[in-house]
Amino acid sequence: MLSVCVAAQARVIDRGLGDPRAVFIPKGNVAVGASFGYDRLAATGDDAGSGASVIGLVTGVKGNVNVFDASLNGAWFFRDNMSVGIRLGYTNTGLDLDNASLMSMLEMSNKHYMQEQLTASLAARAYIPLFNSKVLALFAEGRLNGAFGYDKNFQNTERGKEGTFGNVTSLSLGIYPGVCVFVTDFVSFELSLPLLEGGYEWIDQTTGREHPAKMSRGFVHFKPGLLGINLGIAFHF
């Protein structure tokens, strides 16, 4: 209660960032957009004993990693600078590790991993224009996410692919801050990243089609997810 009283009597300080009530995107606007990304890392060697090194701990690395993600989103502005919308996303991750050595103590070879996931989100976003600008603004977006996908962790043998296969379902809530910049009157670019996310995940696994198993996991992440940075473009009408 003491904190509330002190805050209520504190004088207003203008930090020169502008009026947060200034109109950045007016009520009634509709925005549609898309984002995508692709990363590929490949490591090879000239002979059987050579390969790439990762931070000096993992040596003799031969293989490749591919990550592709894309999403579509739409939003309606029910108030100035505030919107609600939906987002649909797809992610594909693949790892083929031919050889690697961890500190010369653990040897790994013939390891393969693949994951595909579809995500649907309900989102609410609030913009804060900087310096009363109609071009540049910060935003915070809250999302309710539902995802379904599968993953494979296997080895190639004479009998084919042998390993563990699983179906993954998850439900989560997250906060994604970012920045939005208009490059024309109707087109904007944005950058956002996960900041706070928590939820639950269910996994149904099958190993060799003979050993079914179930796992579940609860999680809360309160840190910027730098690997989850999202770049996108949006069209406003």
Could you give a quick summary of the protein structure above?
This protein has 237 residues and is mainly beta.
Structure commentary:
This protein is 3% helix and 70% strand. With 237 residues, the protein is mostly beta strands. The protein has one domain (29-236): Porin (Beta Barrel). Strands 1-3-4-5-6-7-8-11 form an 8-stranded antiparallel beta barrel. Strand 6 and strand 7 (160-182) form a beta hairpin.
Task: List its traits.
mainly beta; Porin; eight-stranded antiparallel beta barrel; 70% strand; elongated
What Rg is obtained from the alpha carbons, in whole angstroms? 23 Å
Order of helices and strands: HEEEEEEEEEEE
Q: Tell me the CATH architecture.
A: Beta Barrel
Based on CA inertia axes, which overall geometry fits?
Answer: elongated
Number of domains: 1
Number of strands: 11
Query: Biggest sheet, strands in spatial order?
Result: 1-3-4-5-6-7-8-11
Strands, helices and their partners?
Blueprint: H1 2-9, E1 30-43, E2 52-54, E3 58-79, E4 82-102, E5 106-129, E6 136-157, E7 160-182, E8 187-192, E9 196-207, E10 211-222, E11 230-236
Antiparallel strand pairs: 1-3, 1-11, 2-3, 3-4, 4-5, 5-6, 6-7, 7-8, 7-9, 8-11, 9-10
